[in-house]
Specification:
Blueprint: E1 16-19, E2 22-25, H1 30-40, H2 43-60, H3 65-69, H4 72-99, H5 101-106, H6 122-141, H7 145-165, H8 172-192, H9 197-220, H10 222-228, H11 233-236, H12 241-263, H13 269-292, H14 295-318
Helix pairs in contact: 2-4, 2-8, 4-6, 4-7, 4-8, 6-7, 7-8, 8-9, 9-12, 9-14, 12-13, 13-14
């Protein structure tokens, strides 16, 4: 999570018809409703949360992962960590859908989300979100208190701070990076039980990575964001230069943070060199955006950021120290 809640583009979840200037959902089969509940969890964010939690957990496991997982209690521990973290993340996303339903209805790219389209009522979405949150919290309480508190901080910072702040300050982008990055550290603390240097390094990688990613997204869809009344740097920087410099700077920070696990001895040098090259690629694309300010350049930054993050995850799994 935020992760930023716009980390992925949202596919339509319901067919809608125009009726007196208002969108109403037409009669839909149960499968469409189930699909709507799935969309409430913001699958793109959930996938990132799952991968980052798993990567953090994997790096924290002492010794060989196969030997570790041969113990059934360890396998249950991993499953509980994953399900609990995903449930809390999904619960916060569902509540975010409810809180931003009016804003989503005003933006073309989000008007077909389950709540503004009328597929799922705000009350049903709220019950769904609260249920997921409580279930996830109960599961993580069986892991350890540190991981539980990190997950709770993820929920609170996303729902109670980031979501309302988006219409008040462009600094919301920085706040939104916190809930998006905490699951990475949470995977580590689930095993180690401590928020030590490697856990902080994992947090830093995902925190800084989200910034150029979202800067690119905000430039691509700034008209929609302006319509919804969000306060973003991209809306006040028609020349794109300030946003471009921020994109380059945070890409450099992403590249630097990605190398830290190798310097700490958590990963090997294959990962270190590979992550440095991936981070450099993101920097290059950000510089290209700074020079041109074109929609296509922003899109390249966005797509590159996805590739960089996946590459970092793959290298972590291949080259754990």
């Amino acid at each position: 999570m935020s992760v930023h809640d716009d980390i992925v583009l949202n596919a339509p979840v319901a067919d809608v018809v125009e009726r007196s200037g208002v969108e109403h959902a037409i009669a839909l089969p149960a499968t469409s409703v189930l699909r709507g509940y799935y969309e409430l969890t913001k699958p793109g964010i959930s996938q990132m949360v799952a991968l980052s939690t798993l990567a953090g957990y994997y790096l924290a496991v002492p010794g060989n992962i196969v030997t570790y997982m041969s113990d059934m209690s360890n396998a249950v521990h991993l499953l509980t960590t994953m399900v609990g973290t995903l449930a809390i993340s999904s619960g916060s996303c569902a509540i975010n859908h409810v809180l931003e339903r009016d804003d989503d209805a005003r933006m073309k790219r989000t008007a077909s989300r389950p709540v503004p389209s009328g597929l799922i009522s705000p009350t049903a979405a709220t019950v769904f979100g609260v249920t997921l949150t409580l279930a996830g919290a109960a599961l993580l309480l069986t892991i350890n208190m540190l991981t539980f508190w990190l997950a709770l901080a993820t929920w609170v910072s996303y729902v109670a701070i980031y979501t309302p702040m988006k219409k008040r300050s462009s600094l919301a982008v920085l706040v939104g990076g916190i809930p998006g990055a905490l699951p990475f550290a949470g995977g580590w603390t689930a095993v180690q039980g401590s928020l030590d240097a490697p856990a902080i390094a994992l947090f830093a990688i995902l925190f800084f990575w989200q910034l150029p990613h979202f800067y690119a997204l905000s430039w691509m869809y700034r008209a929609d964001y302006r319509t919804a009344g969000f306060v973003l740097r991209s809306l006040r920087d028609e020349a794109h230069t300030t946003l471009g410099r921020q994109m380059v700077f945070t890409s450099v920070l992403t590249m630097a943070a990605a190398v830290i696990p190798t310097l700490l001895g958590t990963t090997g040098w294959l990962y270190g060199v590979g992550s440095l090259m991936l981070g450099g690629w993101l920097v290059v694309e950000s510089i290209r955006f700074l020079k041109s300010g074109e929609h296509a350049a922003a899109r390249r930054v966005l797509l590159t950021s996805y590739a960089v993050l996946m590459g970092v995850f793959v290298l972590m799994f291949l080259d754990k120290a």
